[in-house]
Write a structure and sequence with these properties.
single chain, mainly alpha, 2 domains, two-stranded antiparallel ribbon, 4 strands, 38% helix, globular, binds zinc ion
Length: 117
């Protein structure tokens, strides 16, 4: 079974396709306090992360990533950002500006609705 992102309303799955879009998946930290903050950031009521729970990179800010190693890691102490929805909206608006045809615009809006914004 492919892993999915634990965040509420996030439909990202750990597949070759999401990987090709530069989306990475990250396990919850072992540190209890930090883990709690990640659990809260999923915005799912009473959510408790299991050892296999993961969050996708869409919930972090660019400065939260450590890209110096072979694989992309989340810096120790980084907490998923609640401003991510805002970030995604901004990206959506930027994409809409570059969409040329009506068909492309519709497709983009549909993608955003699917994600639950
Ligand atoms: Zn996600």
């Amino acid at each position: 079974m492919p892993h999915s992102c634990a965040a509420w309303k996030c439909s990202n799955r750990f597949t070759v396709e999401t990987r090709s879009h530069g989306i990475t998946f990250h396990r919850f930290p072992k540190d209890k306090g930090l883990r709690k903050q990640w659990e809260l950031a999923t915005r799912r009521k009473g959510f408790s992360a299991s050892p296999s729970s993961m969050l996708c990179s869409e919930h972090f800010r660019p400065e939260d990533f450590d890209r110096t190693g072979q694989s992309v890691r989340i810096r120790y102490g980084a907490v998923p950002s609640s401003s991510v929805l805002h970030k995604l909206r901004l990206r959506h608006i930027a994409e809409l500006k570059t969409a040329v045809t009506e068909g492309q615009k519709k497709k983009l809006c549909k993608a955003v609705r699917f994600k639950g914004f």
